[in-house]
Amino acid sequence: MLQGQGEAKHYSDMYAHLLPPAPPRAGHRAWLASLAAALLPAGRCRLCALPSRAPLCSACQCERPARWRCPRCALALSTPAAGCGSCALRLPAFAGALAWSDYAPPWDRLAAQIKFGDDPALARWLGMLLGQCLRAERPGWAPPRWVVPVPLSPGRLRRRGYNQAWELARGLARELGWPGDCRLLLRRRDGPAQSTLPLARRATNLRGAFVAPPLARGARLLLVDDVMTSGNTAEQAARVLLRAGAGDVRVAVLLRTPVSAPR
Ligand SMILES: [Zn+2]
Ligand SMILES: [Zn+2]
Fold it and tell me: Has residue 145 been placed in a domain?
């Protein structure tokens, strides 16, 4: 995964404080989840509240907006086209993107639940849906060497207790049988959350935020995140991964804003 032992040691020494904590020992959370499942065999759909054993009922799993999307940045298009106007002006650093649905009502509630609802299991389940969507809608995408989540800063990870993008990535990776690694892209500092900033400040907020170890030269990576709005986060993350040696970075997000925003 890393180019050499020396570099790997140097890197892990330098950025040990940024590495995600070891996953909690199998047990407590899993035990609580299985107890909840046993007590509540018929839950409710998170979108329509009808009884459903799965987090989304089968109708809500299928009722996504019928969209043509820009193959490069996953922006919604009104007609089938080779790309969107934004990508025609300036191509993003990533080579392609996929979104499961729109970052708009009612699906935006899912983003809030996996981010603030202390529900990593829901994020993993939605990652499985994203994996199924990728298999169906991007059949030409070759398996990546690694599935990589957009990282949280150490402080935010500590406060939230999990990274929703890593939980999504785990669900996707398991569904597709691809390897995942949450140590290939790290976030150095705890700036204001992108979602709280005006679009014009989002690019500068992220400058220098990400760091990556030297990667196997030419490695194909799939970057996973919960939401893409302006695309700045994916852009900055992809640039850092490409500078670290990746040959090709593609992006899979659960939700994408349906209107264009400046990058
Ligand atoms: Zn439903
Ligand atoms: Zn585009």
Answer: yes
Does residue 79 sit within a domain? yes
Number of other residues whose CB lies within 10 A of the CB of residue 56: 20
The number of domains in the chain is 1
Nearest ligand atom owner, CA of 46:
1
Question: 102: CA distance to ligand 2 center in Å?
Answer: 15
**How many angstroms separate the alpha carbon of residue 263 from the centre of ligand 2?**
11
CA of residue 42 to ligand 1 center, whole Å: 13
Q: Is 231 part of a structural domain of the chain? A: yes
User: Looking at the whole model, is its pTM more than 0.85?
Assistant: no
Q: How much distance in Å is there from the Cα of 117 to the middle of ligand 1?
A: 18
pLDDT tens, residue by residue, 142-189: 999 999 999 999 999 999 999 999 999 999 999 999 999 999 999 987
% of the chain residues with pLDDT over 90: 68
Residue 74 Cα, ligand 2 centroid: separation in angstroms? 6
| CATH number of the domain enclosing 101 | 3.40.50.2020
